[in-house]
Specification:
17% strand; 2 domains; 12 strands; 442 residues; Dihydrodipicolinate Reductase, domain 2
């Protein structure tokens, strides 16, 4: 396929500020990790932007630069960090309490982490029933619009203090209780009216998203909350020409599902049932112990298989499979989650087989490089003049956001092809189809 003209992309000069609503396990693991990499005491394992390559042209050309050398992304040395939280703990205290990273590593970068103090959060107990924050670190006065404007002032103050040139926001907060689209979400006028009237159907994550997008700042949602995909927010993103991405970082068990299920479908192996359970002891696990928050997460997790396996197209293989997801709060595990899966599959002539997966993972370790990549890629998208839904970044999410009426693509390998082809397209390179006709006599 012939390459297109290279898109005009603003350079990445100056500093990039990354603001995280929620300075807990994921955010502090990400921030501490970037600093450790900058000091040369660790490697950015898991980050596509830092370690991944991209093939260009024919296989015989042997062109496969690192992605960060192919497209101009902000350098790690140019990143600054901040955020909001309902707790007063600075990033060092929060990282110690979360017990994800080794204490010796944290001590080595302690002054850097201690300097990152959380700004007062927008918080509503109704949306996160199991989280009990410090009420003195919560924005209390005024309407939701007043709080959104306070967030915008926070962003401006952060940019002035850190002397950053650009900002992105990555939600690293808790999973909010389940919420369906309501009339207040139908358009921007209704939503802004709802903000002024503090409509109870506007969740805190929506207030953060509104504040960011109103200022033209890319917003990435690491939780399964209903946030940027509502019509009001997409209208605002279009108006301010701002990129928005998907929701719910693809880590742990769902990552395994998006790797295994495409393989079953590729080989036309049938599925009778997929039972998934998790034990998790960190704050995320505690929050998900509430039925409302769990329903939000469950909805995100359950949708993956149907979209990949397409039971309506393959009724003999996937027309009647049983899918169950459970998350159990188990404090002794802390951030070291265990995801256990049992798959009952069948093959030739319907003969039964099984697959067992026991994934002893660390959610924050898997999520941290996602935060980095999304921050860098969404900033790149903004500089490239892209706006609205960035479906090419679905690779990082359990719940991709798509244009209305378009089903989401969950297959990890198709998502990766889409991501890399988008980069090739923006840079004026030939798209890779893997047809290979140029090597053989067709």
């Amino acid at each position: 396929m012939t390459g297109t003209k290279k898109r005009e992309i603003k350079n990445a000069s100056g500093k990039l500020g990354i603001l995280c609503p929620g300075l807990g396990a994921v955010a502090t693991t990400f921030i501490a990790g970037v600093e450790a990499v900058r000091r040369g005491i660790a490697k950015p394992i898991g980050s596509l932007t830092q370690m991944g390559t991209i093939r260009l042209g024919k296989r015989t050309e042997d062109r496969a630069p690192k992605i960060k050398e192919f497209v101009q992304l902000s350098a790690l040395d140019d990143l600054c960090f901040g955020g909001w939280d309902v707790f007063h703990d600075n990033c060092f205290e929060a990282a110690v309490n979360c017990e994800v990273l080794d204490r010796n590593l944290l001590e080595e970068i302690k002054p850097f982490l201690e300097a990152i103090q959380p700004m007062a959060a927008v918080f509503d107990q109704r949306y996160v029933k199991k989280l009990r924050g410090d009420t003195s670190n919560v924005k209390k006065n005024g309407s939701l619009m007043d709080k959104a404007e306070a967030l915008m002032k926070d962003i401006d103050s952060f940019a002035d203090r850190q002397k950053v040139d650009r900002v992105v926001v990555v939600w690293c907060g808790s999973t909010e209780t389940y919420l369906e689209e309501k009339p207040v979400h139908k358009d921007l006028a209704s939503f802004e009216k709802g903000l002024r009237e503090s409509d109870p159907d506007i969740a805190p994550s929506m207030v953060y998203a509104y504040a960011a997008i109103k200022k033209g700042i890319p917003f990435n949602n690491g939780a399964p909350n209903l946030t940027v995909e509502i019509p009001a927010m997409l209208e605002l993103a279009d108006k301010t020409r701002t990129p928005v991405t998907g929701k719910d970082f693809k880590t742990g068990q769902t990552l395994m599902k998006t790797i295994i299920s495409p393989g079953l479908k590729a080989r036309m192996l049938g599925l009778r049932g997929w039972f998934s359970t998790n034990i998790l002891g960190n704050r995320d696990g505690e929050v998900l112990d509430d039925p409302g928050s769990f329903k939000t997460k469950e909805t995100s997790k359950l949708g993956v298989l149907d979209y990949i396996l397409q039971p309506e197209k393959y009724p003999d293989l996937y027309g009647d499979y049983y899918h169950k997801v459970r998350i159990n709060y188990y404090p002794p595990r802390g951030d070291a989650k265990e995801g256990w899966d049992n798959l009952d599959i069948f093959g030739w002539l319907g003969y039964p087989m099984q697959i067992k997966i026991d994934f002893l993972c660390r959610d924050s370790i898997l999520a941290a490089p996602i935060v980095l990549d999304l921050a860098l890629f969404s900033d790149f998208a903004k500089r490239a003049g892209l706006k609205g839904i960035q479906e090419w970044l679905s690779f990082y999410f359990k719940s991709p956001v798509t244009a209305p009426g378009l089903y989401p693509e969950h297959d990890l390998f198709i998502q990766q092809k889409k991501l890399k082809n988008t980069l090739r397209y923006l840079m004026g390179e030939d798209l890779i189809t893997h047809l290979g006709s140029e090597y053989y006599d067709f």
